């Protein structure tokens, strides 16, 4: 058989295909029919690839139908043929089909269907070679079409994946994601997203309970990061469809369990926020049968999604996402929504963030986000700023307290808004920060016998200078003068630990004041009374 296949020319094989294939089932049981057929299909594939002019010949003799039926008969006749042999035949047939009839997706689907039929009713594949062949079978259409969307239209594709065990299923899911990313494929309808997430379900949720204990952390992170990248590849310009896509993704992701959510929720949130930014430029009154996609609707989804994240021990991440959503709500002019997101952030801070370092970071994030808000009325803003200043003074370490309190001074003086310029409260914050800095020095003195560097005082001096320049009437040159003298005395005192960094910081600050004095004009006059 091998001689016949190798010796005779390709055209000859095409015309005598039926006779040649008819002989296959009649061969001795020990003959390796698999190799014979694979070689034949390989030869014909190369022949088809050599020139486009020969393709009509294949159609004329119905090569695909004949090969397909011959393979079916051979597999039926050889009952004891190992699974790997049968799958290898289907891989050869699929390769042949993709070469000769790439446009006929129904043929491709038919080959996959035949393979499913052979594998169905059997336990999950254990044979490593068979698993490799299945991965080759599933990868072939991706490589040929360079477009995962085409693979999504093959109805038998997910059924073949279901025949794989958990580990190989994950490998194949990664191949699918990498194909989408390599070709920069945009998946643009909710139905396709459903099919896609059904294919990669091995990465999104635990398919078998046993495997969770022996997860390799690095592999797991890489897999989840790939899923996160994939979420950004799902996009549609039409807001209604985009909202459907977001809902479809959310449904799948939420089943992921506590280890996966911290990886997969953030991209979903940012994808939804991108939709919100787009919607805020449009008017909500779209004429249509369905209720239109509105920012409010998306924000409700966001709130529920982040809530799930905060319940799986990722409070700091959830807090950051709440603040991102609050900023988006601020831009959409939705005061109640923004207030609700801030409330959630504060609740998380109070109930979940216990580590003192994490508290400092979280508080500075909250203060920074709150400072940029311009949607709040007086009452709501007061409530939130009061909350932020209150928490600042309750931090564990005095230096952290001091820095958080002087950061709060920015909440009462916002440059780009007309409303908020409350000089008195700025001064109150700065005086309070000074008191805390003093207390910190005294504590250091009492416990270590030396009072530590003057860095905090220099930082507060810089805040005084900032507000002085911005024209806050409560910050006077006399106050700045007093603070400079205080720092100089502290530095000369015997109990202060010398610290080159804070000395350099203070020297730079003094240089800056001198520079402003020499500048002349309005600023020069302003800085004139300060003696350095």
Automatic annotation (TrEMBL):
| Entry keywords, A to Z | Cytoplasm, Endosome, Golgi apparatus, Membrane, Protein transport, Transport
User: From which organism does this entry originate?
Assistant: Populus trichocarpa
* GO CC aspect terms: cytosol; endosome membrane; Golgi apparatus; late endosome; retromer complex; retromer, cargo-selective complex
- Keyword check for Cell wall biogenesis/degradation: no
Enumerate the Pfam families for this protein.
Vps35 (PF03635)
This protein is called what?
Vacuolar protein sorting-associated protein 35
InterPro entries, A to Z = ARM-type_fold, Vps35, Vps35_C
Q: Which GO terms describe its biological process?
A: intracellular protein transport; retrograde transport, endosome to Golgi
Family, per entry: Belongs to the VPS35 family.
**Predominant localisation class:** cytoplasm
- UniProt subcellular location: Cytoplasm; Endosome membrane; Golgi apparatus, trans-Golgi network membrane; Prevacuolar compartment membrane
Bilayer topology annotation:
Peripheral membrane protein
Q: What domain of life is recorded for the organism?
A: Eukaryota
Matching SUPFAM superfamilies, A to Z? ARM repeat (SSF48371)
UniProt KW Cytoplasm keyword:
yes
